[in-house]
User: What shape does this take?
Amino acid sequence: MTTSDDPLALSAGARSVLARQPTSSAHRRGCGFLARQAIEMALRHELGAEDQADMKWKSRFLVLGDRLPAVAHRGRALWAGWSEVCHYRPYDLVPDAATLNHWIDETESWLRLLAEPQRPSAHLERRLHAQRLVR
Assistant: This one.
């Protein structure tokens, strides 16, 4: 993959945007757009032929859930969190930089899980379950 179509590169870009102005709401929202785009790109790549242009994101995660339920659940939760960061509401505060950096770490971890070649789904399910127990 080239940088332009690499979800981990988009995630690194999100971290870079956040590092430039960690107190700026606009930069924190920009970070959210990039991180969410990284998740969407990875999901589209994973679904391949099963992905339809008119599918809603919730549906895409359901399709992934048929193969990898825990991975899909975690990805959906991350995607929903980033979507909340992206939406501007004057009465809501954008999460602080430390929280967003943690979410970027979680997003990158999810992207790496999804990108593992030849992964048996049972192995991933056990890894995700173990990670939840540690936290």
Observations:
- The radius of gyration is 15 Å.
- The chain has one domain: 3-134.
- The chain has a mean pLDDT of 86.
